[in-house]
């Protein structure tokens, strides 16, 4: 039947197929009755009724033969419109050129999108526009695995595609890439190392020769020993690791303890020194070479605690202890405590005879806590203040006694002076009597001279009565004398 | 489905260049369905009558014949009471080279020459065989009765 051509000119009725009523398309002529039909038309008609549609003579497809070339050319050269005329193509051409026009030229012909997977048919003139919006434009087809891939990264995929065929480097067998590992694991020509390579066997060879090698491998014979050995080494390594962990923990603890000690040292201030010297001397005990040069630890403690010889005397602990510090050049305490002027040992023992009578203050034990030390120190200070108080009272009693004695002496001296004054006065009176009688005899003058003398006499008498004000310098003098005796 | 070009061409020609005494016009809603009228041929008992028929082109047309039926009652040995027509080209003698026009012309010719030897309506055929004159008269009566437009 006609493919639906639209003929531009009127066609001669002799060129019309009686079945499809259109100009012959691929005309055939019957051998028996010489009627001409389109090939498709007559084939369909014969399949229903094996007769010539014109004269009803019996007909089969074997009776058909191509029509005369002259006839064929006549119908093939008929001018037709482009089949896409309804879409806008205005071209006309010979009927035989329609296919070429549709394939190559016609702007309105439907062509498939060039992107794989896109099933759209678009007019040729709109292909460019479609390309820009085609959702499949980023897709390409992998030739190996026949799957769609994004254009971006497509080359990368092709290099690693699991379906690509690759050649085994050992045996030249062809496999796909995804199965290369499987093949290599079984390929008899692949070079493998001995199973005992970890233990030192240097043998390498094709897989099929491995069985032969393992029979002679020296390591195979001691395989059992090696496995036991490996087990032991592994156990030791794990134990070593756990020990290392423990050491790390202990080091951390040690560091923390050191930091705490540092903090404690800072807060202790000067107190820490004693502690440190104790520890150093305690450590020094360990070496006998050092020991003799240093005082025994307890002596050092006492000495350091003493702070000054005076204090020590007051505490009543120094008198029995040998006074080593001056003889020991390596003494730390001398540089740490400000040096006091060292009084002589005689003075320390004699000047305070009451020192021994005092109850001995509890000696500070360095092994006790700081709080305990402070408590004992406070006790010592209280003791010291008590003894100071006692001493001052005794001082006062002694002063009083001394003052009374002096007072009596002054009284006796004053009596002596008075006697002397009386005598001098008598002498003076006698002498003035004599001179007056010698010179003028005038009562007025004599009177005024008597008043002057009496005033002066009063002054001398009053002088000792200022005792209270004079008592202090007197006592000071006595005190100084006493100290000089010390 | 679109109409084959052949049907379009035949329809165009039927309307533009109708055969004498025959009209055929397709339905607007179904281009394969035609309303047909055939005038009774001159010299036949059906002269003067205008017979209405319906014609339907099946899907296989032109490889299978069109289906044609009389709508107007007619007294004819080859046409039964339901209007079915006994005509060889509408059955086994159909050829794709035939057309609507040729079919209708054949029917018109059938009216001119009834064939009681190949009957469809047996009683009519028997009447035609035994009493041609009387049967022809009945046909004329029927034509006047059913196929003539009363003015």
From TrEMBL, chain A:
Domain TRAF-type: 80-127, 156-201
Occurrences of domain RING-type (ranges): 17-56
Ranges annotated as TRAF-type zinc finger: 80-127, 156-201
MF terms in GO: zinc ion binding
UniProt keyword list: Coiled coil, Metal-binding, Zinc, Zinc-finger
SUPFAM superfamilies linked to this entry: RING/U-box (SSF57850), TRAF domain-like (SSF49599)
One Pfam family matching this protein: zf-TRAF
InterPro entries on file: Znf_C3HC4_RING-type, Znf_RING, Znf_RING/FYVE/PHD, Znf_RING_CS, Znf_TRAF
Keyword Membrane on entry: no
Residue runs in coiled coils: 233-267
SMART domains found in the cross-reference section: RING
Protein name per its UniProtKB record: RING-type domain-containing protein
Organism: Exidia glandulosa HHB12029
TrEMBL record, chain B:
EC id: 2.3.2.23
GO function terms (MF aspect): ATP binding; ubiquitin conjugating enzyme activity
Enzyme class label: transferase
Keywords, in A-Z order: ATP-binding, Nucleotide-binding, Transferase, Ubl conjugation pathway
UniProt-listed Pfam families: UQ_con
Alphabetical list of CDD domains matching this protein: UBCc_UBE2N (cd23813)
Keyword Nucleotide-binding: yes
Protein name (Swiss-Prot/TrEMBL): E2 ubiquitin-conjugating enzyme
Organism for this UniProt entry: Exidia glandulosa HHB12029
